[in-house]
Amino acid sequence: MENGFMIEVSNLTKRYAGHTAVSNISFTVGRGEIVGLLGTNGAGKSTTMRILSCYMPATAGTVRVAGYDVFTQADEVRRRIGYMPENNPLHPEMRVREYLKFRARIKGLGRRQCRERVDTVIDQCSLGDVSRKIIGHLSKGYRQRVGLADALVHEPELIILDEPTIGLDPNQIRSVRQLIKDLGRTHTVLISTHILPEVEMTCNRVLILHGGKILAADSPENLQKLMSKGSQVITEVAAPAGELRGLWDQLPEVEHFDISPVDGEFQRCALTPRDGIDIRPQVFALIKERGWSMRELTRNKFSLEDIYVRVTRPNEEEES
Ligand SMILES: Nc1ncnc2c1ncn2[C@@H]1O[C@H](COP(=O)(O)OP(=O)(O)OP(=O)(O)O)[C@@H](O)[C@H]1O
């Protein structure tokens, strides 16, 4: 492959009768990355994943997986992708091992290779205890693992998981997330989710999808850094409000401030710094210099949730 990209999406658009589900999006995923597609219901996550996995054609644009075009070279792409759809269409009447063998055969594995790979994925997805059980009798967590084992059985380089932890209990969620992280050591992984902590915990990079468009793409940490520009510094100081006002007025790094009484002599100061600089050291030094008592000095940190709300409501600032 000429470049390091496992996925290259260029100007992808998907229209269903009269409705644009994905609108001219472009992104790349490098080999070995774990990337999260984050978005609320209807954002276009499943549609994007279905196109990537050759389950349906795009209306416009191109998608390449490992350098192969999903439309004109679908067989090459399918061989390299393990896709777990949102409502995993498992055969509920089949037994776990029997089902995985059947799936491996469909995916073109020979008899011997099939046996070896089924053993491996049963082990990898901790399905040993239930390998002879009927799928329909399994808990949702185990069924999800069977779906993962199915996605992995033909040794794909790229794993695409649509809402892999939906409907699971907290313990099951934990173990499926751990499994995804483990897989990320040897595979490229694209997962979709509407659960924010999920991307924070499992992904190196996040693409925020909203209304069929990508609104932000970066590592969870960078998104947080980006958003913490303009974050306020809060401090509670025992001092006369007038003197505090005079102090913040003279500090060129403070663009705006609010002072409100809390209790006793304490005043709560909310300081908005210019250019997003961290003014806590200056604030601390100034208050110490004056011998005032301080009981809080914090900087608001934006969570990924705040970021998500911000980017998906782009007009909020204009309105206020
Ligand atoms: N087969 C279809 N025919 C018509 N409209 C569709 C079809 N599939 C999806 N849509 C619409 O396209 C938009 C994007 O749907 P998509 O399933 O890709 O979103 P999503 O982000 O995966 O959300 P969810 O988590 O709810 O599946 C939605 O408005 C949905 O109603």
TrEMBL record:
Tree of life domain: Bacteria
PROSITE patterns named among the record's database cross-references: ABC_TRANSPORTER_2 (PS50893)
InterPro entries documented for this protein: AAA+_ATPase (IPR003593), ABC_transporter-like_ATP-bd (IPR003439), ABC_transporter_ATP-binding (IPR050763), P-loop_NTPase (IPR027417)
GO MF annotation terms: ATP binding; ATP hydrolysis activity
Domain ABC transporter as annotated: residue spans: 7-236
Keyword Nucleotide-binding found: yes
KW Transport (keyword) present: yes
Record key words, sorted: ATP-binding, Nodulation, Nucleotide-binding, Transport
Family: Belongs to the ABC transporter superfamily.
Protein name: ABC transporter related-protein
Classification of source organism: Bacteria, Pseudomonadati, Verrucomicrobiota, Pedosphaerae, Pedosphaerales
